[in-house]
Amino acid sequence: MKEYQTITEISGPLVYAEVDEPIGYDEIVEIETAQGKTLRGQVLESADGVVAIQVFEGTSGIDQKASVRFLGETMKMPVTEDLLGRVLDGSGRPIDDGPEIVPEERQDIVGAAINPYSREYPEEFIETGVSAIDGMNTLVRGQKLPIFSSSGQPHSELAMQIARQASVPEEESDGGEGSEFAVIFGAMGITQEEANEFMEDFERTGALERSVVFMNLADDPAVERTVTPRMVLTTAEYLAFEKDYHVLVILTDMTNYCEALREIGAAREEVPGRRGYPGYMYTDLAQLYERAGRIEGREGSVTQIPILTMPGDDDTHPIPDLTGYITEGQIYVDPDLNSQGLQPPVNVLPSLSRLMDDGIGEGLTRGDHGDVSDQMYAAYAEGEDLRDLVNIVGREALSERDNKYLDFADAFETEFIDQGFQTSRDIEETLEIGWELLSMLPKSELNRVGEEYIEQYYHEEDAEEAVAEAAD
Amino acid sequence: MSKAESTDGTATGVIQSVSGPVVSARDLDARMNDVVYVGDEGLMGEVIEIEGNITTIQVYEETSGVGPGEPVENTGEPLSVDLGPGMLDAIYDGVQRPLDVLEGKMESPYLDRGVDAPGIDLEAEWEFEPTVEVGDEVGRGDVIGIVEETVTIDHKVMVPPNALDDGETAAIESIEAGSFDVTEAVAELDNGVEISMHQEWPVREPRPTVEKRTPRTPLVSGQRILDGLFPIAKGGTAAIPGPFGSGKTVTQHQLAKYADADIIVYVGCGERGNEMTEVIEDFPELEDPANGNPLMARTSLIANTSNMPVAARESCIYTGITIAEYYRDMGYDVALMADSTSRWAEAMREISSRLEEMPGEEGYPAYLAARLAQFYERAGYFENINGTEGSVSAIGAVSPPGGDFSEPVTQNTLRIVKTFWALDADLAERRHFPSINWNESYSLYKDQLDPWFKEEVAEDWDSTRQWAVDVLDEETELQEIVQLVGKDALPEDQQLTLEVARYLREAYLQQNAFHPVDTYCPPEKTYLILTTIRTFNDEAFKALEAGVPVEEIIAVEAIPKINRIGVQEEYGEYIEELKSEIADGIRSLY
Q1: Alpha helices of B230-309 — where are they, by DSSP H?
Q2: Signal peptide: which range, if any (chain B) (predicted)?
Q3: Tens digits of residue pLDDT in A178-209
Q4: Same domain, A271 and A297
Q5: Does the distance separating the beta carbons of A114 and B69 come in below 8 Å?
Q6: Are B547 and B590 in contact (CB under 8 A)?
Q7: Dihedral over Cα of B227, B371, B159, B98: its sign
Q8: Half-sphere exposure (CA, 13 Å, Cβ side) for A129?
Q9: Which one has a higher pLDDT value, A471 or B284?
Q10: Do B88 and B263 meet the contact criterion of CB atoms below 8 Å apart?
Q11: Is residue B374 situated within a structural domain?
Q12: Alpha-carbon distance values, A136 to A341, A382, B429 (Å)
């Protein structure tokens, strides 16, 4: 291993050094400063005689006399089952004063793409216990379903609730306990306080022993954030596809990750894309999100719930926009619903789970699930529209039919969505509440529900009550 | 992709620098678009720029760990696809490497590097049956025999277009029926040319044709809003732009499943891995509505998911359209779905920016419009060089950032395509699927396709459609007023119009892709649903004139049954009964 003292330029997070041997793209570099501090970095560009190095810990303290060592390999993550229960920093080094980690394997953190032919289509329903998700935007094993939120919203609470409650009921009925998920938590640039909340919840519920926590906090080097999610996903893939775990990956906050990408792009003087983010951000994000899934012949699965805060609550911003094009749906946390005190404040209308249709129905959840969900979507959307109108003309000016939809929309929020962060509802309960709400509408309005299900589940009394009320 | 066997012009260079998918090499003797093998691992790449002694290469595989000093080997051939039997029921990556074969060769579910495989199985044997005899004169492109490629499709073995000059003919010297693999000669011409079932064709060059004709037959999709309001022709072009979650992929899948084309080429360009898996798992089990055979028997899949190398994403569109053109040459109607052309454009942008080219609008290269136009121009209804007629219909999904249709990819696409299916996030939010906005969408093929619909479906096809469009237009105007004053403030006839329009939206425009019956709606049913709603409309307005209040009319019990027509398998009888029930119900009010 050759050492160089040939740094020619230091700019932002980048260091340029002259070399006299070929250096591979993406290779790992160690830089030792005159003070004896060792910093790690990665080769971003390799040309004859000169390489550009991105330094994870930031370039402060590096001078032109610092020595540069090329390790001759790309970045690796030491993986072992013993990682469960451990807390690591953003580069995968333990920070919990626990014993040293003895790796079983060292895996390349830039995961190779899964061959689409080798994938297995995700269709096992995950019961999160949250009605807004289970009922309306069902999550399945191997899905990537981000939470679109904005600053100041309780997205962390929702993520914790999912991590705490998620199980696969199918296995419960087979006599098992319902398999729990191994949770891998990747924090990128979140504050110490937020991190503490997560850690406390992990410890309180005893979830820590089936979790691996990676912490890159707000005051940790930004550039390190570009490797944290790769470390997380490499660990997840190892546990899922080699050790048969069902892994739930929570990444927060993807916005900070993208900011770090932009910082590096700017330092390299690249041609910027939309809003200054690099043109390759779609590809880069895809390389993270696409590492969710299931593989034929392997027991485990990787399910991803990335959290991102939308700048200005604007979902056309490049970060949520590109994410939405890659992930299999999205869950919106809504500031208005939050200020009304709904827990969780999920706005189902723009939310979506693309894999829902294959994960629900007869034998998976219940035969009427799809119809109920569609009908509630349509009815809630109609009620929402009418609210604008009520503000102008008042309720009296609306027809009886319209009033029913308005009542439905109100009840949908208070009964169905607002369940509290501590309550877990099973799917039967969620659908039962759904039918209670749908029974506020006359049968003839339920044009998306199969006639046989109306027969079976529709609450006749409620309809009569509603009629009686309307008559009063 | 085949390893080129030609040795002419082969040369070896040395890597000078590596930056992501772009590698530059010096001392390489190469032409533009030559395929090269990069580095010790032999990663496949293509020459995209030559400047002095420096050749720039886009690499179709991950370049981690590749460094300066490693060799680059030129094959001296442009990027080509292997054409021959075996392309149907196959799944390829962006440079036509079969993904199932790669899985076996790599012994891993992950895509490794530096592994190559031919696009068609070179060892599989096919039963060849000649259609010409010894002594027959054949020209380029002429069919000399057939092979049963799948239960649905007879593969026609043709004289390669580059084997003879235009207009030149040669006599068959020998031809034999029997079992052959694709590399063996099945016939010999008197000028010494041997013909096998295998051809190669450079992907960036359109296959030759005689002329492009005006398409006059619709590509029937079984989707009401498409067939009924915005039809596309066989040989036509269409764009489906929409923000995420608006149903681009479901619409593309529906077309791939139910469009009445002979061959479907589905290109998953930079999209989700699980979506391709869904196709791989579903299509072999789904039935072709035309003949009941598995859908895969007429389908060729190209999957370059978003996390696969970006350069191969750039090439996958070309790989797809070249395969489509090959089947068109056999006289088939081919439909190509590209999901999504925006990812393709972004791949161009990414490579362009690595080359430090001067960017055009929003960072896209200045040649974006030209590339899009070249792609869509390869679609069309053609007279082939062998005298047959065939078509390639191209349907491209577009993923505009933020759902804003004013961005360059959407705008440049709209300048070329003649059918526009605008997806609408607002409709998707209220689960109105397919969420195609009927006010914004258009089809410029309507007039040239009407004669077909009049002949095959109903004489008043066009006037019925126009009636529906008028009602929907009126609804849009009325809705603006309703937003201000409420529905009850409108005069009764307008309230009735709103009610009719509601049924148009719910029973006609909406269609449930996940319902076993509703997912496919033949044109006749599409027409009959419209006439049912029209019956309601006509009867209701007569009753209104006779003084019946609008609440009483719309309370007639039979009317909501209109919404159930879609899910009826035996729709003919159901509709007949429903029409008379509606008429009787309304007439009984006065």
Answers
A1: 248-258, 273-282
A2: none
A3: 466 899 999 999 999 989 988 998 888 888 88
A4: yes
A5: no
A6: yes
A7: negative
A8: 17
A9: B284
A10: yes
A11: yes
A12: 20, 16, 12
A311 shares contact with chain B (CB less than 8 Å): no
Instruction: Answer yes or no: are the C-beta atoms of A431 and A369 closer than 8 Å.
Output: yes
> Of B531, B487, B483, B489, nearest to B507 (Cα)?
B531
Contacts of A234 in chain B (CB under 8 A): none
Q: How many CB atoms lie within 10 A of CB B192?
A: 8
- Provide the residue count of chain A: 472
Structure tokens at B290: 């035309």
CATH of the domain at A175: 3.40.50.12240
Domain count, chain A: 3
Domain assignment present for residue A364? The answer is no
Condensed to tens digits (0 to 9), the pLDDT of residues B552-576 reads 999 999 999 999 999 999 999 999 9
The verdict on A46 touching B (C-beta cutoff 8 Å) is yes
The answer to whether A254 and A186 have CB atoms below 8 angstroms apart is no
Give, in order, the Cα–Cα distances in Å from B109 to each of A15, B134, B247, B301, B503. 37, 49, 29, 18, 49
Closest partner residue to A117 (CB to CB) among B19, B280, B560 is B280
Is B108 assigned to a binding site?
no
> A281-289 and A318-326 helices cross at what angle (nearest 10)?
50
Count other Cβ atoms within 10 Å, centred on residue B489.
13
Contact A404, A440 (CB under 8 A): yes
Confidence of residue B520 (pLDDT cuts 50, 70, 90): very high
Question: Peptide bond preceding B434: is omega within 30 degrees of 0, i.e. cis?
Answer: yes
Distance between CA B156 and CA B138 in Å, rounded? 14
Instruction: Name the one residue in this structure whose structure tokens are 């529709």.
Output: A458
| B5 — pLDDT class (breaks 50, 70, 90) | very low
| Crossing angle of helices B523-545 and B571-587, rounded to 10° | 0
**A118/A43 same-domain check:** no
Q: Can you spell out the DSSP letters for B403-414?
A: G-TTSHHHHHHH
Query: Where is A462: in which H helix or E strand?
Result: helix A460-471
Per the document, the length of chain B is 590
pLDDT tens figures, B29-72: 888 889 999 999 889 899 988 998 899 998 988 888 788 889 99
What pLDDT shows up at residue A1? 66
Partner-chain contact A326 B276, CB within 8 Å: no
Residue B107 lies in a domain: no
- The HSE-up count of residue B107 (CA atoms within 13 Å, CB side) is 0
Structural domain contains residue A203: yes
From B67, B310, B399, residue closest to A24, measured CB to CB: B67
Q: Is B89 helix (H, G, I), strand (E, B) or coil?
A: coil
Give the Cβ contact number of residue A135 at 10 Å.
Answer: 24
Burial class (CB in 10 A: 0-12, 13-18, 19+), B396: buried
Do B49 and B355 meet the contact criterion of CB atoms below 8 Å apart? yes
Across the A:B interface, residue pairs with CB atoms under 8 Å apart total: 224
Q: How far is B244 from chain A (nearest CA, A)?
A: 5
- Beta-carbon count within 10 A of B547 CB: 8
Q: Are residues B62 and B130 in the same domain?
A: no
Is B281 contained in some domain? yes
Quote the domain boundaries for residue A30. Answer: 3-74
Largest CA distance in chain A: 90
B242 is annotated as contributing to ligand binding:
yes
| Residue ranges of chain A with per-residue pLDDT less than 70 | 1, 170-180, 462-472
pLDDT at res. A464: 55
- Residue B429 is predicted with a pLDDT of 84
User: What angle, rounded to 10 degrees, do the helices at A192-204 and A155-165 form?
Assistant: 20
A271: closest chain B residue by CA? B353
